[in-house]
Structures are given as structure tokens and as C-alpha cells.
Amino acid sequence: MTTTLPTPDTAGRVSIGYPAATDFDFAELAPLMGRKLLNNVGDPYTDGASPGHTKPAERQVVEILADLFRAGDHRWGYVTTGATEGNLWALREARRRYPDGLVIHTTAAHYSVPKAVDLLAMPSVVVATDDRGEMDYTDLRRRLTKHPGRSALVVATAGTTMTEACDDLRQITAVLDDIGVPARYVHVDAALAGIPLALLEPDQRPGFDLADGANSIVVSGHKFLGTPMPCGVLVTTAAAPTQAPVSYIGSPDTTITGSRNGHAPLILRAALQRHGLTGLRHRAEQARALAAHTVDRLTEIGWPARRNQHAFTVVLDRPPPPAVAARWSIPTENRRSHIVCMPGLTQHDLDRFVNELRNATRRQQRAIPRQRTAIGYRTSDP
To answer: Is the separation of the CB atoms in 158 and 189 below 8 Å?
Structure first.
């Protein structure tokens, strides 16, 4: 049986509800894919016993992002399988520092956060969000005051899954300081929005990075940077974990996984270096402009839509008809849907979607049965 898979171009143009940039071409790295195993096993800052690795490239990627996220002199990190692994590493590190710590995350946190809490058997408290998806800082205060003297292990989000909201570390820190939390570890899941937010001008940046009080941050590689395989990058202000080398690999085992993808750092480095920060900033600006255009077009056809400040994500306050949602791969949660205007999508793509949504809505309205009244027929209320 032969299965026909969509080409990357086709997949990118119909999948507008999931965040994966499609404007990078990594074909120049294709010769590296079939030549040999590249395994970055162990600590990225210790090359280890096996020569088949790309740890120098991995270190470069970590250093570029550490600078972008204002890590200061103390920094460490590695290329992960994705942001989920980064969240797990951070909570494991937080538990190591504060064994009595209480994990704090919002109802809008990525599903990997409660999963990591469960895997590590850590106590947790879930904080409400506002209508934008951002942490409710009054609720944070209320819940923490119920646990006086307890260390707080906060997982903030920079770019929530459905609305791309950003939790404000400055407000979180103010609450923790005001109620006298004795110790804290703050991790930021910035899988989607971390790099684009860091590229904003200093007076526009929200409080979300390592200089704003985070101990660690993780971003995805397959979202804004469009890598062809899932991956992520964890950066922390902690010193490199001190562990004895494992004799078999000649390197400390400081990461979550054992063997790690050695091709991912090469692709991440290429994505970061090809255009530099100026080119990456231009891509982010174009994506935001496309999101603003899409909100305007949806509003024109009477479909309620909005976006958070600096977001690529357009929130639809009611879901599209099922056939339209399926064709364009649009997710729905709690009766809301969204579009993510990632680099690689064009105004033509999004205009096609809006036109199809408008036409589908008209067809639905025409299909509504009319009811007989004393003076004739009327259309039922939708």
C-alpha cells in the first residue's frame, strides 16, 4: 500500500493553526544527514570519548541564545529534544535545590508542565489566568499565602499555546518578594515566543528572560527557527552541573536523555547565523504584521478575532466550521480556535483562509431551514 505524504510546501500552506516556520531551506546540510551517526551524548561542554559529535556547534547555539536572553557571565545549557525536555530538566533542578518546593504554574501552561510534575512526583498549585491567557497575579498571591514559608518553584510561560500570552516575571517577583517567599526557582517555558520577544527593542520587551529573574528558559527549535526535526534549547544561569564523568562516554551525564541528536545543533546554528539577529528580527516583524492583517480581515467578515501584544497568534472567539478547521489544521480549545502566523505563511495564504471561512459561513446560513409563520416564512435564528 502506497501512502502519499504532503510536500513541506503543501503542509505549511494548509497548516495555519500549529506553529512551525516554513521559510528556511536547510538543503545545504542534507549531505550530513546520511553520512554517519552524530551523537552528542553527555554534557555539551565536555566532548567525551566518541569523536562522532557536534558539541562545538551545540555550545555555539547555547551561547548565542544565552546572550539573547541576557544570561550574564554564568550560563550553561544544551540542545534538547524539545521544550518538554527543558521543562522537565528545570523542574528536576528546582527540586534538587529546594526539595520542599511547591510548583506553581497556570491553567494555560503547556501540558508538558503538569506531566513533568507528575513524573517527578512534586506538589503543585495551579493559578488562574486572565482572558488573554496571562497569569492572574492576584490569584498567585492568594494561593501562595496559603503556603507560608514554602519555597516556590514557578513555571512561567512566554507564549501560551492558545493565545500566546506572556507571564510577567517582574510582577511574579514582586508578589514573591511582597509575601516573603523564602526561596524560589523560576523557569520560563518560552517554546514559541522566546526568541521573537527577545528580538524586540529594549523598551518593548516584556519581563520574561534571565535578566528579569528567571533561573532557566527553554525555547523550541522547530517553531520560530523552523528546524525539520523537533528540538529545543535550554539555557540556565546556573553553573555547569558538577557530576563525575561516566567512564564509558567520557563525559558527565548532565542532561535528561542519554544519546542526543547531533544534527539538531548544526541546523539550529545555521538558522541563527544565516540571517543574524537583524534578519531574525525582520522575520518576527513580518509575522506580527501578517497577524495584524489577519485580525483586520476576520473582523471585516464579522468573525470575532483578536491578538495579544507582539503575538503571532490570532485568537478566534468562536471556532470555524468543522470542514474549514480540518482543511486548515486549526485547533480548538474551550470553544476558541487560533491561527499562528509563522514565517513562511503569506498574506495570500491567510486571505484564502478568510475567504473560505466567509464562503462556508454563507453556505451554512443558506442551509438553515426556514420556519412557517402566519404571514409566510422566516429563517431560524442561528
So the answer is: yes
* Short-list 153, 140, 148, 145, CA closest to 101: 153
253-291 burial, b at 16+ Cβ within 10 Å, e below that, comes to: bbbbeeebbbbbbbbbbbbbeeeeeeebbebbebbbebb
What gap in Å lies between CA 70 and CA 77, rounded to an integer? 14
Please say whether the beta carbons of 20 and 222 come within 8 A: yes
Contact, 261 vs 111, CB < 8 A? Answer: no
- What is the amino acid identity at position 204? Q
Beta carbons within 10 angstroms of residue 95's beta carbon: 18
Largest interatomic CA distance in the chain? 90
Q: Where are the alpha helices (DSSP H) in 15-111?
A: 30-33, 55-68, 83-97
Report how far residue 291's alpha carbon sits from residue 346's, in angstroms, rounded to the nearest whole number: 10
> Which parts of 231-369 fold into alpha helices (H)?
263-300, 322-327, 347-367
In the chain, which residue ranges form alpha helices assigned H by DSSP? 8-14, 30-33, 55-68, 83-97, 112-119, 137-144, 169-178, 194-198, 263-300, 322-327, 347-367
CA distance 2 to 280: 39
Which residue has 539550529 as its cell numbers? 268
Quick: pLDDT tens for 113-155.
Answer: 999 999 999 999 999 999 999 999 999 999 999 999 999 999 9
**Dihedral sign from CA coordinates of 226, 113, 150, 98:** negative
Closest Cα to residue 186, out of 206, 148, 212? Answer: 212
Q: What percent of the chain has pLDDT over 70?
A: 92
Write out pLDDT tens, residues 193-231: 999 999 999 999 999 999 999 999 999 999 999 999 999
Task: Give the CA distances from residue 30 to residues 37, 57, 249, in Å, rounded to whole numbers and listed in that order.
Answer: 14, 17, 27
Is the pTM higher than 0.85? The answer reads: yes
Q: How far is CA 78 from CA 59, 227, 235, 262, 342, in A?
A: 7, 16, 7, 11, 25
Dihedrals phi, psi of 298, to nearest 5 degrees:
-65, -40
Q: What angle do CA 253, 40, 110 make, to 5 degrees?
A: 75
Instruction: Say if residues 326 and 319 touch (Cβ distance below 8 Å).
Output: no
The whole-angstrom distance between residue 307's C-alpha and the CA centroid of its chain comes to 16
Grid cell digits, residue 238: 546556573
